[in-house]
Amino acid sequence: MTTKYKDVYIKNVATVVGPYEAKGPLAKRFDKYYKKDMYFGCDTLERAEIKLMSDSIKLVLKKSEVEKSDIDLFIAGDLQNQIAASCYTAYELGRPFLGIFSACATNTEGLIIASNFIESKTCDNVLVSVSSHNMVAEKQFRNPTEYGAPKPSTATFTATGGASCILTSQKGKVRIESSTIGTPVDYSKNDPLHMGSVMAGAAAEVINKHLTDLDRTIDDYDLILSGDLGNYGKEILRDYLKQEYNIDLKNKYNDCGVMLYDLKTQKDVQAGGSGPVCSALVVYSDIIKKLENHELKRVLYVATGALFNPTMVFEKENILSIAHAISLESVL
Amino acid sequence: MEKKLYDKLVVNHKPKEKRGQNAFIAFVVGGLMGVIGQLLVEFYSYYLGLSSSDASVFMIITLIFFASLFTALGFFDKWVKFARCGLIIPITGFAHSMTSAAIEYKREGFVTGLGANMFKLAGTVILYGVVSAYIFGFIRLIIMGGA
Fold first, then answer.
1. Which of A182, A206, B3, B89 has its CA 20 to 30 A from that of B110?
2. Nearest to A147 among B3, B17, B96 (CB)
């Protein structure tokens, strides 16, 4: 489903990151970072993730000079069971709350829902947040964090951070111009250590759907950005689009998971970053600024999510995946 | 896209794992663990005058103690990342799997967290270790008459 919007603007964004991200190539562009450890002064890792999200909310409210009470709706998601980080943050914030989950595609899902509320004039200010924490995700989906099980080079590394964005109907420098909601896909993949191969198909289908629905080509965009396919998933997507739809991404394509870290020096991340916050960190810290000063005119942001449930995989089911796309445009 | 074609794309972009190098490191480190174990056995039987079977038990306890200590101090996982099965397969890996799970779940309470999850990884090894010991014990009894 593709929708066009007239009056949906990004008021402001904020990013908070952990120590690994603060060593990456985008380090200087984040609003706040924690360098010491992964607890950030909290007792548990789960609490640490809540802190990341609520820090990013405090920052975005301060930056945009908006009071808590001006937020009509809060939409958030994360990777914890029952999206715990979002729920506890929402309680602290005390505003009407919609909790969402699309794994690593949660951020675009949130932005799409928010855009619809704003376009329909139901809300004036909608706050969209996502977070993820490397060790919380490891604990939840894989082995204990201190176990340090060896992983193949196709594995991705869950990013640690919180990211928030306020969408508004008042004119701003960057607007959300259109969106495409994806359909879950199944390419018979079940390797949680190669999520790029699980998600590339979903991304390709959504990109094609977006372009055909709006009767556009790749040339209508300055940049196509996938969420967290990683080094190898990125190449799968490129080939898929070429073979199946004859779409050539040329040099207009990049992946947020690859951009968040320096893959040469930060070997721990293997194929790249992942997690709901991964694409949000890259888009909010780097891409939005480039759109604001007109370096980029129109960007298609395709967040990709592997709907990975360990129980289902142990029960011999495949990993499903989904992708949602939004088109960001710089306002002249 | 058809699943078969998609599989082809995935295989085309699958990187080669450094299997040879990993196996070599695991072989050397695993062998080193064996040497350390043997030295410990010699040490205990020579200096403490223990019988060789008692010395083996002391050696296992020593290795478990140090693997657990290093896990708790937070650097054993980095060694495991480097040496892989060289440290996971010996008794050090068993100790490491239990300690790492214990540290992880401690905050969820001593009963509901630590107690319930400590054997998350090691439980499989214990269960199938006992089952296979039972089966092989029987085989040994039948073939060799329990000798």
1. B89
2. B96
Q: What is the pTM of this model?
A: 0.93
Antiparallel, parallel or unpaired: β A253-255 and A223-226: parallel
Last residue of a domain, one of A142, A168, A194: A168
Domain count, chain A: 2
And the tokens for A291?
A: 């759109």
Residue A331, SS3 per DSSP: coil
Q: Is the ipTM above a cut-off of 0.90?
A: no
Cα–Cα distance list, A181 to A47, A113, A327, B129, B132 (Å): 31, 10, 12, 50, 52
Cα–Cα dist A90/B62, whole Å: 49
Q: What residue of B is the nearest CA neighbor of A202?
A: B1
> What are the φ and ψ backbone dihedral angles of A19, each rounded to 5 degrees?
-65, -40
pLDDT in tens, A237-268: 999 999 999 999 989 999 999 999 999 999 88
Statement to judge: residues A271 and A295 lie in one domain: yes
Q: Of A260, A180, A257, which is closest to residue A221 (Cα–Cα)?
A: A180
Last residue of a domain, which of A137, A168, A199? Answer: A168
In whole angstroms, give the CA distance from residue A232 to residue A272: 9
Q: State the residue range of the domain holding A215.
A: 174-330
pLDDT in tens, A124-175: 999 999 999 999 999 888 888 788 778 889 999 999 999 999 999 999 999 9
